Amino acid sequence: MVEEILCYRAPTTVVDAEGIAEWLEPRIDATVSVRDRFLEVHRTDDLAERFAEARVPSPYDRETGNTMLGTIRYEERALEHPEREGGVLYDGKQVQRAVNSALPAEERGLETLHVVLLDRAVGTWGDHDGRWHKRVSVLGQPALLSVPGLYEAPAKPEAYYKEKQRHSLLSGDAPPREILENRVEGDFLIEDDPRTTDALKGYALQASHFLETGEPFCDREGCRLFNAHYHEDLVAAQLREPEFCPDHAELYGRS
Prior knowledge:
Layout: E1 4-8, H1 17-24, E2 31-35, H2 38-41, H3 47-53, H4 69-80, E3 89-91, H5 92-101, E4 112-118, E5 121-126, E6 131-135, E7 137-138, E8 143-146, H6 147-152, H7 158-171, H8 177-183, H9 196-213, H10 231-239, H11 246-252
Parallel strand pairs: 1-2, 1-4, 3-5, 4-8
Antiparallel strand pairs: 5-6, 7-8
Helix pairs in contact: 1-9, 3-4, 3-5, 9-10
């Protein structure tokens, strides 16, 4: 049984770890506390190399890793100055193993769940289609919640990609938020969205639910435990009422 949840901040993002913890604690039978950035609290000498080994070089190449000296130096700088990191996809399972090994022995047991808010994009390999897929979460111990993944992993409306491409061709840069929101039908989250914290609350609960029950997701759309593959489904599950399906409302529907 999970007795304690430790939620780690991602200071280079807009997500509020304290807000997630305050929402989560009344709904579960565990204490929830917040710590500073995981990669600061539990830094190990080999962490930069482990991240270099977890790099995804190509969307269609199963093999990972680039441990050339320049890449390791980049990862060292990214650990020291996370605001400079970006544009790299990492194998989520490898990152999970790396951060698990960085945990002190007394905190590795399943009675303490570590929820790491991560300012990096992570993915998993899809055997069914032979390519990497970005993910919002990698459940387990610790659980990784990728803030960039919240914006990038679920598919947005087709019109979003068309408008983004059209604007780039005309201006050479990405369109501002208000242009996309005004010209594209459908609801979706984009980088630094003010709804980020609210959206990630359900993913933190998924991490706890998985460790408690072994069940990763709910198959009912609109439930906080639903694994959304499209932004419109994500918004419906995480940002609209009711929060839970009837079964999970009995477990977690407390305010």
